[in-house]
Amino acid sequence: MVKRIMSDFASVADFVVVYVAEAHPTDGWVMSRNMDIGQHRCLEERLAAAEMLALHDIPCPVLVDTMDNATVCAYAAMPDRLYIVLDGVCVYKGAPGPDGYQPEEVRDWLQKFSG
C-alpha cells in the first residue's frame, strides 16, 4: 500500500524511508520471518542492512539513521512510524507501529492537501 501511495502522490510529495535500528535482529528479539540481520554494531553494518532494504524496489531514497539513533530519538520512530512534514513543520504524526502504522491515514491527508 505504501508503494502505491508513493506512486499516486509523486507529484504532490517527496517520500523518503529512514532505516533505523533493526527491530528484530537475529541476536535480539527474533521473529520467524527475520532476515539474517543482527543488531548493528557499526555504521557499515547499518548501511549494509539499508542496502538490503533498498533491493526491495523501494521507490524513494532510503536514508540511514546515525548509530546514536538520532532519528529514532527525535521522532520516536521505533519500530516504524509515518510522518508528513510540510515546510519544516510536522503536520501528520502517525502512531507507533506496528499497530499504529496506518498508511491509509497518509493517503487521506495527501488527498485532502492536493484537493
UniProtKB/TrEMBL annotation:
Keywords from the named record: Oxidoreductase, Selenocysteine, Thyroid hormones biosynthesis
Signal peptide coordinates: none
InterPro entries linked to this entry: Iodothyronine_deiodinase
MF terms (GO), sorted A to Z: thyroxine 5'-deiodinase activity
GO BP of this protein: hormone biosynthetic process; thyroid hormone metabolic process
Family: Belongs to the iodothyronine deiodinase family.
Role summary: Responsible for the deiodination of T4 (3,5,3',5'-tetraiodothyronine).
This protein's name: Iodothyronine deiodinase
Source organism of this protein record: Branchiostoma lanceolatum
